[in-house]
Design brief:
By secondary structure, the chain is of the alpha+beta class. The chain contains ten helices and 20 strands. The strands form five sheets. A six-stranded mixed beta sheet has the order 2-7-5-6-3-4. Strand 8 and strand 9 form a beta hairpin. Helix 5 runs antiparallel to helix 10.
């Protein structure tokens, strides 16, 4: 059944849920441990650390529950299948005589986000408002009862679609094969046994600085050209791989028109980005370095970026910027062979690491596909 064909029921939050709250613990009481603690964070499922709270009499623990913090949907609404301690500014929700599972928990948490918008620092969601203010949630209904079976089937089908996309991507990119070659295994062994020769290089000996065209964001609409292809607009953001937005602009302000492998290094925050496409660049008064090399490719860039990142994150800061002059003379360590940069071992090593990481992803996707087929067949 499709979502638009579902019968929906409207339920008052105060009637449907058993609503609780967390408790305040001092920093002195919080010792590092194994139990997650849920706070008013809006990411990481609300978890801000793992602590030894099970023996604390004033700690409040819940298991298999949904949390809503004081900022409502803006603050984060999450489902927790595990036991966790909960901070004072977090509400807990459970349905009496109903045990959530991963699918129904996620479905209901998502539905709650539609119900609890409009809260923030200046208008916080208290437990009294949550319990008595008449907020309602819409959920699938069948014969006058909440249709948990539909939720499970719907989420299972969504997961199946995402896993199918992942499977197609792995096949198209060749990442489905995670068996190490002899060369890859040897590269791992060489690094593990310190059997690699290293050399010290200034960054300008490895990468070449490119001319660049920067754009004042105020001028974006003046430069608009609907006949051009849409390309990303990069700035010094650390989010979304540095992409601020996408635009169709005049060809005159386009960087990297041939789509060569390129590294961007931002002087203010030392953020490093790799790309293989034409792009627009936000005006930062020359704060972004655009780097290329005939030897640069998708594999060895991982190694080179890691080598640069290892140095500049410790050497520079906002008050001591990684300017182009500074970066050019910054020294990094890279593998060598016969006094030349050893790109081959960089690429082989990265390929091996990639396979080790992707192995778990492939195994997960295969298992998930089979499990999802079972659930969908059972509920269809």
């Amino acid at each position: 059944m499709k979502l638009e064909e579902v019968e929906w029921g409207e339920y008052r939050l105060g009637d449907l849920f058993e609503i609780g709250t967390g408790s305040l613990l001092s920093n002195n009481e919080l010792k590092i441990g194994q139990t997650p603690r849920i706070s008013a964070k809006s990411d990481s499922n609300g978890i801000y650390g793992y602590f030894d709270t099970l023996n604390l009499s004033n700690a409040r623990h819940f298991e298999n529950f949904i949390t809503v913090n004081f900022f409502g949907a803006d603050g984060g609404i999450f489902y927790h299948p595990y036991k966790a301690s909960v901070e004072m500014k977090v509400h807990t929700l459970k349905i009496k005589n109903v045990e959530f599972n991963l699918k129904t928990g996620k479905f209901i948490a998502t539905a709650l986000k539609l119900s609890l918008n409009g809260f923030g620092y200046g208008s916080q969601l208290s437990s009294s408002k949550l319990q008595h203010s008449g907020y309602k949630i819409q959920l699938p209904s069948k014969n006058g009862e909440i249709d948990f079976d539909f939720m499970e089937s719907f989420i299972a089908e969504l997961e199946a679609g995402r896993i199918a996309e992942l499977e197609a991507y792995l096949l198209a990119t060749g990442l489905k094969d995670y068996t190490l070659t002899k060369q890859e295994q040897q590269a791992l062994d060489d690094f593990d046994s310190n059997n690699v020769e290293w050399g010290e290089y200034r960054i300008q000996e490895v990468l070449e600085w490119q001319s660049q065209k920067e754009i004042n964001p105020i001028k974006l609409y003046e430069l608009k050209d609907d006949t051009e292809i849409i390309y990303p607009f990069y700035g010094q953001s650390t989010l979304n791989n540095g992409i601020i937005s996408f635009h169709q602009l005049t060809n005159k302000v386009l960087n990297n028109k041939n789509g060569k492998p390129t590294i961007l290094i931002h002087s203010n925050n030392q953020n490093i980005i790799y790309l293989e496409n034409p792009f627009y660049l936000k005006d930062g008064h020359g704060a972004t370095s655009v780097l290329q090399s005939e030897k640069l490719n998708r594999l060895n860039q991982n190694f080179i970026i890691s080598a640069i990142d290892k140095v500049i994150k410790h050497k520079y800061s906002y008050n001591n910027k990684a300017t182009k002059i500074e970066l050019k003379n910054t020294k990094i360590q890279l593998p060598t062979k016969n006094n030349q940069l050893n790109y081959e071992i960089m690429e082989t090593f990265v390929s091996a690491i990639q396979k080790l990481v992707i192995k778990d992803v492939v195994i997960y996707s295969d298992r998930k596909i089979e499990a999802t087929k079972t659930i969908v067949n059972k509920l269809s």
